[in-house]
Design goal:
Layout: E1 5-12, E2 22-23, E3 28-32, H1 39-51, H2 61-64, E4 74-82, E5 85-93, E6 98-102, E7 105-106, E8 115-118, H3 122-128, H4 130-142, H5 146-168, H6 173-214, E9 220-225, H7 233-242, H8 244-250, E10 261-266, E11 269-270, H9 271-274, H10 277-299, E12 304-307, H11 316-328, E13 333-337, H12 340-347, E14 353-358, E15 361-364
Parallel strand pairs: 3-13, 3-14, 8-12, 12-13
Antiparallel strand pairs: 1-2, 1-4, 4-5, 5-6, 6-7, 9-10, 10-11, 14-15
Helix pairs in contact: 3-4, 3-10, 4-5, 5-6, 6-7, 6-10, 11-12
The structure holds adenosine-5'-triphosphate (ATP) and magnesium ion (MG).
Adenosine-5'-triphosphate binds next to helix 1 and helix 2.
Length: 365
């Protein structure tokens, strides 16, 4: 296999995880253990090392530092196999400083290895929160499109300034707002274009992965909802200008691409109103696997896939389907479960690496 994969990791002072070396195989890795023993913590450590942040909201150094630590420093050391060669990725984190190293050299810019974290709650949030959906798309587009990330940052900085002006209303604030709108309109147009392209590209994979994983003949679609699609800079600027009276009363910007949304459809019906929890879970998993396919085929990015117990809501047959899909996917997967029947299914996979965690220690590796 030519994709980068994690061969081993050692963490010191990270949550309840012991400092034993944990080794992985390049295919499917199953992490078993009872509730509260450290399965998710292992995935979180890997995600933290790669993305420099937790998958959890508002989780900073004090939360991830082991309660029982003697020194308040977290150390990560790992070995990845990249194009057949061993490379080390390590990090040292304390309350006031953090540093990352790739092959012993300070890591600058983008991490050469990537991972996707699949969380059991993401599906629920995706179907219930427009903020989550917006963030989901922004983060997933940003992961491969640095320009999108920059434009988005630019947009949010300008928006923040605009909102401060609207809230405080200093003298001549309207002149300043019109100057900001010039930039907002320009950046909005580019962001909208990129969102449309992304949605277009992922759509095919989305339908295909749903069919490949769940072998069902349903039509899945996601529609990008923006009132500014296809507009010119000038038209966007005029819309912002037209809404200024409302913004002045509200004290913030009510209209713009920061309010855009994405609506998932299932057989032509809005998934929010129509889908069961299981169907939502299947749709969400298909979307995330579609994203992984898109990364692989279009951008030649091969992430390690971290799946944290997603067994809830899926019946045995659909679980089986998901496992069969993972078996044929040529990427490294780390999957956790505390669910006994799902564990039994996973144990049947030939050649999978099994890891048993108890009280933060690796009992079997
Ligand atoms: N900073 C910390 N220091 C020490 N232990 C911690 C820290 N943060 C969390 N823990 C412990 O980690 C354990 C939870 O680990 P984790 O979430 O990985 O469990 P899990 O095996 O995934 O369980 P489940 O099957 O319920 O999801 C808890 O026992 C908690 O007390
Ligand atoms: Mg867990």
């Amino acid at each position: 296999m030519s994709h980068p994969w994690l061969e081993k990791i050692k963490v010191v002072n990270f949550r309840n995880i012991s400092s034993d070396v944990i080794t992985f195989g390049n295919g499917i890795n199953c992490i078993f253990g009872d509730n509260g023993n450290g399965k998710t913590n292992i995935l979180e450590a890997i995600n933290f090392l790669i993305h420099k942040k937790s998958f959890r909201k508002n989780t900073a150094f004090p939360q991830i530092l082991s309660i029982d630590c003697e020194e308040s420093e977290i150390i990560f050391s790992s070995v990845f196999v990249v194009e057949g060669e061993r490379k080390t990725l390590s990090a040292k984190i304390s309350s006031d400083s953090s540093s990352w190293f790739y092959n012993q050299e300070p890591l600058r810019g983008k991490n050469p290895v990537s991972c996707i974290f699949i969380n059991p709650f993401d599906s629920y949030h995706f179907f219930n929160s427009s903020t989550f959906r917006r963030k989901w798309f922004d983060e997933h587009i940003s992961l491969w499109d640095v320009d999108y990330k920059k434009k988005l940052r630019d947009y949010h900085q300008s928006l923040k300034f605009r909102n401060t002006l609207l809230a405080k209303k200093p003298s001549y604030f309207l002149d300043q707002i019109f100057a900001i709108d010039e930039n907002l309109a320009n950046v909005s147009k580019l962001i909208i274009e990129k969102r449309c392209i992304f949605l277009n590209e992922i759509s095919d994979f989305y339908k295909k992965t749903f069919k490949a994983i769940f072998s069902e003949e349903n039509d899945l679609e996601i529609q990008y909802e923006s009132k500014m699609i296809g507009l010119t800079d000038l038209e966007i600027k005029n819309i912002l200008k037209k809404n200024i009276e409302k913004d002045k009363i509200l004290g913030h910007t009510a209209y713009g691409i920061h309010k855009d949304d994405y609506t998932p459809y299932f057989n032509g019906l809005r998934s929010f109103d129509y889908c069961s929890l299981g169907q939502q879970k299947m749709s969400y998993l298909s979307l995330i696997f579609a994203y992984i396919e898109l990364l692989r085929y279009k951008y030649r990015v091969y992430p390690v896939v971290l799946i944290d117990d997603v067994s809830g809501e899926l019946d045995k047959e659909r679980w089986g389907n998901l496992i069969n899909y993972l078996k044929i996917c040529k990427y490294q997967v780390l999957i956790t479960t505390a669910n006994e029947s799902f564990q039994k299914e996973l144990e049947k996979i030939n050649g999978a690496t099994k890891i048993l965690v108890a009280n933060g220690r690796i009992l079997k590796n």
